[in-house]
TrEMBL record:
InterPro entries: Kinase-like_dom_sf, Leu-rich_rpt, LRR_dom_sf, Plant_RL_S/T_kinase, Prot_kinase_dom, Protein_kinase_ATP_BS, Tyr_kinase_cat_dom. Coiled coil: none annotated. This is LRR RECEPTOR-LIKE SERINE/THREONINE-PROTEIN KINASE-RELATED. GO terms for cellular component: plasma membrane. Residues 270-437 form the Protein kinase domain. ATP binds at residue 299. It is a single-pass type I membrane protein. It holds the Pfam family Pkinase. The chain crosses the membrane at residues 210-230. It is found in: Cell membrane; Membrane. GO terms for molecular function: ATP binding; protein tyrosine kinase activity. Keywords: ATP-binding, Kinase, Leucine-rich repeat, Membrane, Nucleotide-binding, Receptor, Repeat, Signal, Transferase, Transmembrane, Transmembrane helix.
Length: 437
């Protein structure tokens, strides 16, 4: 027996104590020992009482203490121990006097293995940070004293003689624990979850199963209905795509020039690989005809598509107006506007056809950048044009300004063809007025 209690001893416990294999009692309580509890204490197989309380031990409880097969009393209270309660403590079948782990900083649930300590008389887990339910304590029938106050335990109380006789002070400080000693707080048939399993719950079980079955059936039905709706929507979209090939709705064709190709030839070119541009009003394709001619085909967005491509309602109503654009383009004959060849449409799709401008999508960008760098000055004109009359040079510069508006990086800021035609007519009108003056 070694009794060093109630002194002012400091520092860590000597590891050499673990060599005293015949030691039965070690009491160093009420000192100032620090550091971790030596894991080598598990070698003290003859030890029946280990008292380390009221010191400043830190770290976790050594798992090796579960090897102390003769231990009857283990008191580690009033230290700074952290971590969880080792499940290995449940292996000490001889632990019958007391297990005191109070006033530490232990966390986590009570391990289920603690239920194996059926001979234990005193258990004190108070003033820690333990949590979870208490079902692992339900089988400790030999307990005469239990204190689990000031932790984070939740749920119901095991329904046995000890818990029904416990003082409220042994349960206080567990906010989620049903601890007001009344019948509704006791768990007669405790399971591993700490939930009540009484007869009333068993009567409600068929109702719960029925409700769950109905919920599952409803969920499956909603999934099936959703899948059917998606399939129908895809079929509708596919039908709309087919209509562009002429399978669903007939096409109407209005040429504004003499053309040597058919609508079918144009439609076969409306594929993603032929896209050369997209804007607020539609997407533009390059179409190579069988006779070698190349045209640009502009497919106008429907109203809903135009809105999703950055148009507000006011602009979309103008730019998506097929009849207005066709009427304007068909009446224009101007050297600065690309030639409008014709239009075709069916119930879902509207197409405009123009002369194709080679390199318009690449080289044209370099030209635009160069003109903008020159800020639209007169130096952008060919030197041979500078000898022209001042009125003609002014008309050229104004036409160039209109062209820059048409290639604005923001589709919303580009004028439509009706506006372009009006601006070019205004330029012509100003030159005529200048000539009369």
């Amino acid at each position: 027996m070694i009794d060093l209690s109630n002194n002012i001893l400091q520092g860590p416990l000597p590891i050499s104590l673990s060599s005293l294999t015949g030691l039965q009692v070690l009491d160093v309580s009420a000192n100032q020992f620090t550091g971790q509890i030596p894991a080598s204490f598990g070698r003290l197989t003859s030890l029946n009482k280990l008292m380390l309380s009221r010191n400043s031990f830190s770290g976790s409880i050594p798992l090796s203490l579960g090897l102390s097969s003769s231990l009857q009393l283990l008191d580690l209270s009033s230290n700074g121990l952290t971590g969880s309660i080792p499940m290995e403590l449940g292996q000490i079948e001889t632990l019958e006097i007391a297990l005191n782990l109070s006033c530490n900083r232990l966390t986590g649930p009570i391990p289920p293995q603690i239920s194996s300590l059926t001979k234990l008389s005193i258990l004190d887990l108070s003033h820690n940070k333990l949590e979870g339910h208490l079902s692992s304590l339900a089988g400790l029938d030999n307990l005469v004293s239990l204190n689990i106050s000031y932790n984070g335990f939740t749920g119901f109380l095991p329904d046995n003689k000890l818990f029904r006789q416990l003082s409220p002070t042994d349960l206080v400080g567990n906010q989620g624990l049903c601890s007001s000693i009344r019948d509704s707080c006791f768990l007669k048939d405790a399971d591993s979850t700490g939930l009540p399993g009484n007869e009333n719950d068993r009567r409600q079980s068929p109702k719960l199963k029925l409700a769950l079955a109905l919920l599952i059936t409803l969920t499956v039905a909603m999934v099936i209905m959703g899948a059917v709706a998606i399939m129908r929507a895809r079929r509708t979209i596919r039908d709309d795509d087919d209509s562009e090939l002429g399978d669903s709705w007939p096409w109407q064709f209005t040429p504004f020039q003499k053309l040597n190709f058919s609508v079918d030839q144009v439609l076969r070119c409306l594929v993603d690989t032929n896209v050369i541009g997209k804007g607020c009003s539609g997407v533009v394709y390059r179409a190579d005809m069988e006779n070698g001619e190349v045209v640009a085909v502009k497919k106008l967005w429907p109203n809903s598509m135009a809105a999703s491509n950055g148009c507000n309602d006011e602009k979309c109503s103008v730019r998506d107006s097929f009849s207005t654009e066709v009427k304007t383009l068909g009446s224009i004959r101007h050297k600065n506007i690309v030639r409008f060849l014709g239009c075709c449409w069916n119930r879902n799709t509207r197409l405009l056809m123009y002369d194709y401008m080679p390199n318009g999508s690449l080289d044209g960008l370099h030209v635009v950048d160069w003109v903008r760098q020159k800020r639209g000055g007169i130096e952008v004109l060919d030197p041979s044009l500078l000898s022209r009359p001042a009125s003609e040079i002014e008309e050229m510069m104004q036409a160039l300004g209109i062209a820059l508006l048409c290639v604005n990086s923001s589709p919303d800021e580009r004028p439509n063809m009706k506006d372009v035609a009006a601006m070019l007519k205004e330029i012509k009108h100003e030159r005529e007025e200048y000539a009369k003056g």
